[in-house]
């Protein structure tokens, strides 16, 4: 059995007096020589942490404290600091290893005295500076809160942040060292069988295979994803408080429906059960109204093309008389099948119920999990639904054909975006489009912002002088720009907040500086924001977790912006700005009711 990795703090320099075995003596010995080397190579822990790696880890920790898109609570900052710290330690250790190898080649090894002095003073200096940087970071976070209209709160605590960051860092360091120990053991085992170069190759290959398979197949797929899948499946079978089976024959899940109430899933049941009533619509318009059609098909166990589910949706549209309505709204769902009430409901109020909203569930997993493991299902479902509905619409005479609009938020916007191959195809494919918070992976969105007019920023791009497609964060003013240009029909509106990490997150952030991090910065972005490789990727990843709790028009929160968006995309005859304002008030009241 190998010796334990208990640190022998009594190992002093050969000129130091022999320390006592008391606690104070050991502390004094450690101060005189604050590092150690194992007596031989059989020790599990073979060397003290690398000083250069420690310095880089601290530097990365400091960089993680800089402002990103959104304010961060201390617990998120602590985790972020530890994760970025281990990345910095890896960078520093690689540089240190290369430097030591070069020094050995030049026969000029580093001084042991310099190493001792470094460990005596550098960690203390870095700790003091770290406390000062955390305090600076707290002030920067409060300025960012003020910029977004959030109440000033002392959500940062220097001691807690440093403690959690250090704990996270040490845990990850232990994992990395365990992997390195495994590689050493494998190389040693193969070394007894084959020449040393082959032993290194075989040992590293087997170690990498074990780590990849263990991490992906065991920890990720069967562990984390399996747990999330189980929890999400159970949640999909429930019903949210206050939700009851509808009686209106115009919605799915009713007793007359071809789609059973039990098959809708949690989010589908909420969607169909919260359609506005004719009394609510009439109270808003002052005119007799129709019960809005809401068609929803829950997740089907079938092939990935979703043709059967789309065909069922069309039959349900036949049953509900959806083809006789003025507007048909195909709305993309998020991973769990959720439809934000702020997207279909304003259109139903605008047209006094003379609408049909159709949605199809492709997953019960949370959106971010669905996006990571199989976002293509969203595109397959949206294409199947669009093709089925669009094909049927073409059989209806043009003068009796309903207007077709497309909508979606987040992964739902990505799904509808996936139906088309170009911006012009999107414009030509419907009578209006309204998207909120499209993820950066959306292909048509990428083409639009990639070919935006020169001089327009990526967070508020102008495409072909705003002829058909426009972007907004505060839609009441932004959608009027450029004011001198005509806005043709059909119209496409993207609402995207400059501070929305869902829009900007991409793996490219690891190494490439994004356009949104260069001046001019967005209106709710801290002027102190800077891009740092690796660090900015993890900052934006953490921002994803807090983006849904931001006030409207910040983060991934769009509030009642769809009221203005639909008023621009496809307003009914006689619709005015005052009507939009009244509708925003109604939607705000509905949101308070269900919050």
TrEMBL record:
Residues 293-583 form the Alpha/beta-hydrolase catalytic domain. Residues 65-276 form the Alpha/beta-hydrolase N-terminal domain. Pfam families: Abhydrolase_9, Abhydrolase_9_N. It comes from Catenulispora pinistramenti. InterPro entries: Alpha/beta-hydrolase_catalytic, Alpha/beta-hydrolase_N_dom. The chain crosses the membrane at residues 51-70, 76-98, 119-138, 158-179, 186-213. It comes from the Bacteria. The keyword Glycoprotein does not apply. Residues 1-20 are annotated as: Disordered. This is Alpha/beta-hydrolase family protein. The keyword Transmembrane helix applies. Keywords: Membrane, Transmembrane, Transmembrane helix.
């Amino acid at each position: 059995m190998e010796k334990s990795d208990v640190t022998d703090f009594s190992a002093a320099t050969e000129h130091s007096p022999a320390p006592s075995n008391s606690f104070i003596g050991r502390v004094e010995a450690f101060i005189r020589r604050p590092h150690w080397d194992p007596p031989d190579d059989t020790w599990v822990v073979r060397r003290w942490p690398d000083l250069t790696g420690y310095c880089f880890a601290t530097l990365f920790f400091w960089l993680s404290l800089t402002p990103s898109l959104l304010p961060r609570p201390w617990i998120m900052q602590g985790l972020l600091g530890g994760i970025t710290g281990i990345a910095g330690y890896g960078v520093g250790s690689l540089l240190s290893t290369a430097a030591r190898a070069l020094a050995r080649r030049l026969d000029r090894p580093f001084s042991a005295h310099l190493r001792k002095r470094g460990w005596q003073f550098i960690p203390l200096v870095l700790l003091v500076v770290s406390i000062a940087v955390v305090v600076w970071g707290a002030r920067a976070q409060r300025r960012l809160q003020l910029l977004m209209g959030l109440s000033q709160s002392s959500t940062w605590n220097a001691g807690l942040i440093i403690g959690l960051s250090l704990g996270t860092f040490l845990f990850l360091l232990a994992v990395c060292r365990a992997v390195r120990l495994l590689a050493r053991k494998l190389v040693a085992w193969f070394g007894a069988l084959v020449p040393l170069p082959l032993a290194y190759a075989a040992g590293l290959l087997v170690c990498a295979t074990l780590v990849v398979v263990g991490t992906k197949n065991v920890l990720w797929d069967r562990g984390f994803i399996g747990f999330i899948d189980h929890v999400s499946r159970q949640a999909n079978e429930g019903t949210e408080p206050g939700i009851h089976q509808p009686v209106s024959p115009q919605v799915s899940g009713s007793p007359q429906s071809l789609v059973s109430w039990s098959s809708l899933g949690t989010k589908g049941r909420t969607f169909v059960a919260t359609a506005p009533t004719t009394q609510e619509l009439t109270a808003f318009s002052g005119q007799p109204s129709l019960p809005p059609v809401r068609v929803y098909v829950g997740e089907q166990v079938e092939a990935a093309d979703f043709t059967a589910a789309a065909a069922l949706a069309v039959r349900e549209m036949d049953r509900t008389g959806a083809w006789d309505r003025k507007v048909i709204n195909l709305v993309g769902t998020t991973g769990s099948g959720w439809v934000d009430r702020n997207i279909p409901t304003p259109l139903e109020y605008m047209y006094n119920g003379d609408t049909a909203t159709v949605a199809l569930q492709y997953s019960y997993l949370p959106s971010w999990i669905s996006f990571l493991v199989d976002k293509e299902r969203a595109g397959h479902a949206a294409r199947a639904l669009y093709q089925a509905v669009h094909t049927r619409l073409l059989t209806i005479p043009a003068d009796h054909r309903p207007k077709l609009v497309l909508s979606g938020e987040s992964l739902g916007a990505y799904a509808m975006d996936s139906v088309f191959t170009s911006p012009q195809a999107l414009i030509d494919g419907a009578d209006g489009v309204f998207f909120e918070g499209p993820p950066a992976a959306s292909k048509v969105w990428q083409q639009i912002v990639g070919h935006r007019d020169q001089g327009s920023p990526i967070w508020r791009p102008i495409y072909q002088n705003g002829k058909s497609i426009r972007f907004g964060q505060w839609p009441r003013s932004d959608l009027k720009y450029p004011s001198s240009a005509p806005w043709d029909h059909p119209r496409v509106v993207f609402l995207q907040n400059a501070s929305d990490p869902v829009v900007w997150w991409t793996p490219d952030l690891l190494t490439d500086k994004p356009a949104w991090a260069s001046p001019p910065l967005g209106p709710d972005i801290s002027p102190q924001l800077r891009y740092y490789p690796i660090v900015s990727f993890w900052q934006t990843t953490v921002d994803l977790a807090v983006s849904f709790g931001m006030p409207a028009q910040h983060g991934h929160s769009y509030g009642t912006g769809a009221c203005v968006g639909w008023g621009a995309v496809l307003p009914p005859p006689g619709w005015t700005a005052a009507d939009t304002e009244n509708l925003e008030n109604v939607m705000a009241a509905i949101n308070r009711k269900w919050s």
